[in-house]
Amino acid sequence: METEIILVTEENLDEVVQKATKLLKNGELVGMPTETVYGLAANAFDKDAVKKIYKAKGRPADNPVIVHISDFVMLRDIAEVNEIALELAKEFWPGPLTLVLNKKPSISDEITCSLPTVAVRMPSNYISHAVISAADVPLAAPSANLSGKPSSTTAKHVFDDFFGKIPLILDGGPSELGIESTVVSVVGEKPVLLRPGMITLEMLATIAPDIQLSNSIFEELESGKPVESPGIKYKHYSPNAEVILVKGSLEGFIRHLKTLTHGNICAMCFDTEQEKIPIPSISYGDINDHFSQGRRLFSALRMVDKLGSSKVYVRVTEDEGDYLAIYNRLLRAASFKVIEVE
Ligand code: TXA
Ligand code: MG
Predict the structure, then answer these.
(1) pLDDT given for residue 231 in this prediction
(2) What is the CATH number of the domain that holds 171?
(3) Which pairing describes strands 117-121 and 97-103: parallel, antiparallel, or unpaired?
(4) Residue 113: nearest ligand to its CA?
(5) What is the DSSP string of 198-259?
(6) Whether residues 12 and 75 fall in one domain
(7) Do 3 and 171 meet the contact criterion of CB atoms below 8 Å apart?
(8) CA distances (Å), origin 192, targets 15, 92, 96, 263
(9) Total domain count for the chain?
């Protein structure tokens, strides 16, 4: 199959949306931008199309996908909406928040992997909004990366992972946020934050003061324990290189790097630090600006493989507040390997 990439502009938007919609109606997959990361979209009401997502990504059959909507009528068609869900949705949609809700019968087991719940989000990116609304059906769309690999934040990343496997990729430029949506379950007694994102715990707490942080954010899963969000079971965001986090000061980071026998290794650090790093390095943003880190994190992880490194040492700082979403992705990329330095 040939894979076409189309750069979307205001001028060609209608034409491109029509093309994407036609493919989606025919059960094909389309790579599309959202404000978080690129998604690999299929008609959520077409079971065979949803199955194609799992096949193309190599996604484990027990990791459900997010359903994307463009308005509240679609929401009503697919999920039971309670009061807290509605309040969160009104505050943060359209935007980078996914809500886990009880599903309605229109949502198949192919989407939810037989769970009684469905994850739903209303993206704010104008291209994805236009595609969903023209398709007039919700779109199932996980991040557009091969399972286990860093998410795609450019159309080129999507092409690298799926060329020959999908017919169309819409290029909307680099992702505005670069980190996947915040996932919150609202089906239990209290809302639970399952995956941190750019909508932070503090922001959510303004609407849902009793929100809890899932343990799974910091801890490796114990085998046999029930899983709140199936995706957390699996290795994620990983380049081919082994990822090791080094937590502490810049001086401590440099001291640690100097103890290593320099082989095929590289480092990830913050802007302005590169000149002090004794091995090849890639910056993943301004140390004081989590938005710049979000935009660059996945590109930096993909770059590690372009350099052909077998190991990457990643400088990390504290693991709270705005940095939590970034730290969480890195922790998973490193399979929880963290070295603490002074
Ligand atoms: O920003 C995003 O959310 C992007 C863009 C494309 O919208 N999508 C994305 O999808 O990150 P994906 O499939 O890579 O991550 C979906 C996460 C997984 O961790 C999955 O386990 C969880 O949402 N999830 C999906 N359905 C769920 C459910 N019913 N209950 C709990 N977790 C669920
Ligand atoms: Mg993903």
Answers:
(1) 66
(2) 3.90.870.10
(3) antiparallel
(4) 1
(5) SS-HHHHHTT-TT-EE-GGGTSPPPTTSPPSSGGGGS--S--SSEEEEEES-HHHHHHHHHT
(6) yes
(7) no
(8) 41, 16, 16, 43
(9) 2
Give the pLDDT confidence of 303-318 residue by residue, as tens digits.
Answer: 999 999 999 999 999 8
What is the end-to-end Cα distance of the chain in Å, rounded?
53
Any idea which residue has 């286990």 for tokens? 148
CA 203 / ligand 2 centre spacing (Å): 23
The span from the CA of 342 to the CA of 133, in Å, is: 52
Q: What is the pTM of this model?
A: 0.95
Indicate whether 237 belongs to any domain.
no
pLDDT band for position 13 (cuts 50, 70, 90): very high
CA of 65 relative to ligand 1 center, distance in Å: 5
Distance of CA 217 to the CA centre of its chain: 14
Site of tokens 């290189």: 241
With beta carbons less than 8 A apart as the criterion, state whether 283 and 296 touch: yes
How far, in Å, from the CA of 143 to the mean position of ligand 2? Answer: 4
The alpha carbon torsion through 257, 259, 264, 269 (nearest 10 deg) reads 0
